Amino acid sequence: MSSTQSENPLRIRCQCGTVSFPTPTAKPTALYHCHCTECQRQSASAFGTSAIFVSGNLFPLAPDLKARLGLYTRPTDSSGSMDCYFCRACGSRLFHRIRDTSGAPRPTVSVKGGCVEGLDWSGGVHIYMRSAVMKIPGEWEQYETVPPIMK
């Protein structure tokens, strides 16, 4: 891969293609495979995968993008909230943004891994293993809840 290619953003795309836009940066800062019960329900699977990006110029959302997205907000374990964005046409969850107890958003956005075209899946960290419904090899990085960097 040339250095020019590695500096280009990836593409976020919903299942039906109604929503498609570039990632805020060329690479995620982290990749998490979350085994919490919320991610299990949201993904209808054993875990959900999120690629973490600095939110950059994604927010405020461009009017045309905002018009194609639905928003579901839910409480978090830390007494904050999570804004969950999904395609209004097909319902695919695309990304979420966590807000602290004061309502201030984190400077990052969690993009659903399966919606990121060209994502490098290597090096993912398994989190919320306390709720895992499958065994993960011990040599893979994993945490009972979240790694110290997320606290």
Automatic annotation (TrEMBL):
InterPro entries: CENP-V/GFA, Mss4-like_sf. Residues 10-122 form the CENP-V/GFA domain. Pfam families: GFA. It comes from Monosporascus ibericus. This is CENP-V/GFA domain-containing protein. Keywords: Lyase, Metal-binding, Zinc. GO terms for molecular function: carbon-sulfur lyase activity; metal ion binding. Belongs to the Gfa family.
